[in-house]
C-alpha cells in the first residue's frame, strides 16, 4: 500500500502536536489515531480517563470524538489543562461546546489536513470553528466570550486577504503561504501588511487574535 505524504507545512505542524484521542467507539478512535500518525500520542475512552491519560502521554491537545448523536455538554466539562478540539456530527451547533470549554469544534468528517491545521492552531490559543456549525440564531455566542470586544469596526478584508489570514492562523510562514496559494512571498508580505493595517495591529499574532474576535478566521 502506498503511503501518502503530507505537505511540508503539515509535517511541521505534526511535529509539534501530541494528541490524546478520546471517544467511546474504539474503531472510530483508532481510525483517528491512524490518520494522525505521529501526531497521536495516546487514547482514552471516557471523560474521567482524560486527566490521567494526559499525564501518562504528555499530550498537549485533546481530540474528542463526541459521536453521531452527542448530548449537549455542560459548562466546564470540556475544560482541561490542554486545549480540546471536539468532533461532532453535521447539524450540531458549536455554541454549547465552546461554552463547555472546547477551543475547537469541527465536523467528524473533517479531512486529515484540516484536522492537523486545527490542532496546530489551538496550540497557539486560537479558536477553530467550522462555520457550518455556527448557530446562526445567536452568532456572537459561537465565539468564546473572552474573545469578544464590543464595537470593533474594521475595513473589510478581501477574499485573498482572508485566505492569507487563515493560513497565518494555521502557523504557516510567508514562504509556506506563497507555496500553498501559488503566489510569490513578496505578494504574501503585501497582503499581510494590508491585513495588519486594516485590523490596526502590529503583529501577525495580534492580527489572528483580533480576527478571531471578529469571527473572520474560521477553519
Walk me through the structure.
- The structure is a single chain.
- By secondary structure, the protein is of the alpha/beta class.
- The chain folds into 2 domains: 8-145, 3-Layer(aba) Sandwich (Rossmann fold); 149-214, Winged helix-like DNA-binding domain superfamily/Winged helix DNA-binding domain (Arc Repressor Mutant, subunit A, Orthogonal Bundle).
- 42% of the residues lie in helices and 11% in strands.
- The chain has 9 helices and 6 strands, in the order H-E-H-E-H-E-E-H-E-H-E-H-H-H-H.
- The chain has a 6-stranded parallel beta sheet, sandwiched between helices.
- Strand 5 (104-107), helix 5 and strand 6 (128-129) form a beta-alpha-beta unit.
- The relative contact order is 0.12.
- Mean pLDDT is 78; it is low at 1-11 and 136-152.
Give the helix/strand layout:
Layout: H1 8-16, E1 19-22, H2 26-36, E2 40-44, H3 50-57, E3 61-65, E4 84-88, H4 94-100, E5 104-107, H5 112-122, E6 128-129, H6 159-169, H7 174-181, H8 185-199, H9 204-214
Parallel strand pairs: 1-2, 1-3, 3-4, 4-5, 5-6
What does this entry show, briefly?
With about 220 residues, the protein is an alpha/beta fold. The chain is built from 9 helices and 6 strands, in the order H-E-H-E-H-E-E-H-E-H-E-H-H-H-H.
Strand content: 5-15%
- What would you give as the CATH superfamily of the largest domain? Response regulator
Overall residue-averaged pLDDT value:
78
In the predicted model, the low-confidence regions spanning at least 5 consecutive residues are: 1-11, 136-152
Number of helices in the DSSP assignment: 9
Number of separate strands = 6
Distance between the termini: 31 Å
Strand order of the largest sheet: 2-1-3-4-5-6
Amino acid at each position: 500500500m502506498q503511503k501518502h505524504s503530507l505537505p511540508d507545512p503539515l509535517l511541521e505542524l505534526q511535529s509539534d502536536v501530541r494528541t490524546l484521542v478520546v471517544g467511546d467507539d474504539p474503531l472510530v478512535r483508532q481510525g483517528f489515531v491512524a490518520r494522525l500518525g505521529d501526531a497521536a500520542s495516546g487514547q482514552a475512552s471516557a471523560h474521567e480517563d482524560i486527566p490521567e491519560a494526559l499525564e501518562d502521554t504528555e499530550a498537549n491537545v485533546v481530540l474528542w470524538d463526541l459521536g453521531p448523536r452527542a448530548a449537549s455538554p455542560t459548562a466546564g466539562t470540556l475544560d482541561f489543562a490542554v486545549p480540546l478540539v471536539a468532533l461532532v456530527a453535521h447539524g450540531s451547533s458549536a455554541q454549547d461546546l465552546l461554552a463547555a470549554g472546547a477551543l475547537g469544534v469541527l465536523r467528524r468528517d473533517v479531512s486529515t489536513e484540516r484536522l492537523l491545521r486545527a490542532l496546530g492552531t489551538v496550540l497557539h490559543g486560537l479558536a477553530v470553528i467550522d462555520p457550518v456549525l455556527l448557530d446562526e440564531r445567536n452568532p456572537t455566542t459561537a465565539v468564546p466570550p473572552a474573545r469578544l470586544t464590543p464595537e470593533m469596526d474594521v475595513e473589510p478584508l478581501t477574499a485573498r486577504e482572508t485566505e492569507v489570514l487563515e493560513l497565518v492562523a494555521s502557523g504557516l510562514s510567508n514562504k509556506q503561504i506563497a507555496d500553498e496559494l501559488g503566489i510569490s512571498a513578496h505578494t504574501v508580505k503585501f497582503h499581510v501588511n494590508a491585513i495588519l493595517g486594516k485590523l490596526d495591529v502590529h503583529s501577525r499574532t495580534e492580527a489572528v487574535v483580533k480576527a478571531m474576535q471578529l469571527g473572520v478566521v474560521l477553519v
